[in-house]
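Example A, followed by Example B.
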Amino acid sequence: MSVRNELWTPTMLTLIDEEHDHRSASDGHSRYGAYLGQRLNRFHEYDRPDQPLPVNEFAAAAWGVATSPVMSPGYVEIRPDLRGITPTFAEDGDGSLLIDVHVPLYRQALRANRDVPSGLQDWSAERHCLSSYATFYEPSSERPALLTTTVVCLVVDGSWGLAPQEHTRGHDLVADAKRTVAALRGKS
């Protein structure tokens, strides 16, 4: 993606490069839109192709297509020091949408009452010349590793400004999805 590393800040976890999305579009409009078009069955109620999804289900589906592994690089680029930002639903079954931010931690950041066994590998990190954020990679598989990730769970409520899905296909679906993804990235 063409987003430059110096754009990342401590409070900016994601970026969208609309220019790259349009320039790389196989359909001449939007690369993200082409991916959505290939997955229309994810954007309507089961067996009801004209029935939009509930707002939280639509948000999760739109984000899922906008990020890796579906799109690589994603329509939404995630800051390199994070392992992922994923939508999930509350376990109590009330349909609440949550956003999980996966943050790798060096094991030295842990406070433990017990020593960590020696010989275990930790995260490998690579710094890019224009960024103060390192990209974390799993170490080689030559010996065991202790890889710690913390998950920050954000509750998606009315203040996120998610709009209901109005369309189930075409450029209008793309506009709905882009609006929803922008609302999600604005708060995460």
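Example B, a separate protein, is given below in the same form.
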Amino acid sequence: MSRLFIFALFLLNHVSSTSHANPLTISVEQNNVFLEALLPELLNDVKLEAKIITIPSRRALVELNEGRIDANGLRLRILEERYPNIIKMDEPVLHIDFIAITKRDDIIVKSWADLAPYKVAYPAGWKIFDANVPASTKTTTVNDHMQLFNLLEIDRVHIILLSETIAHSLLKNRTDHPFRFLYPPLHSTPSYLFFHKSRQEEAHKLAEALRRLKANGAYDQLKQQTYTQ
């Protein structure tokens, strides 16, 4: 039984004491352990039910815009201009650093332009990388985040691009890994949950719940616990 399936069952059971006629379906990105820890707290606070799934990033946008799922995250600010039926929860969930990762000691990356000479891989559907990686760069996109590290480890690519939080969560059990995280980040930005416009009321309730968690210190405590496990 997959960890994500168990997580979905936990959410449904955790809030089952308060019924909702039409539970949310939320698609979450792979390996975001903080979001997986945060969502039960938010849903329980506002007495909402949810089913949590993971679908590929690009497809998730289409399904959200068409109303086949109710929410998706984490994503950036840019989506509302491109998808008319999508609204943003008006409280950022997490500030994300997008970084380059390599095995080689001689690679220095301080800007997007520095990627041009190398073979680069990143997650399919991540618009931040589609928009900023130089057109001349030889790129590979994959749907599975761990596959990025596999490509890097067998020298199929020189650099992979990922969010720092997801990279750390994937490598948390590998203390002897050969990978170098390159700083400064290529980009830092707040990230959000996005909702279909028919779920505006739920989006507002969850934003208020998130603000309460930040105000009472529970958010910082949860983040510290998540990233030190």
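On Example B: The domain at 3-94+191-228 is CATH 3.40.190.10 (D-Maltodextrin-Binding Protein; domain 2).
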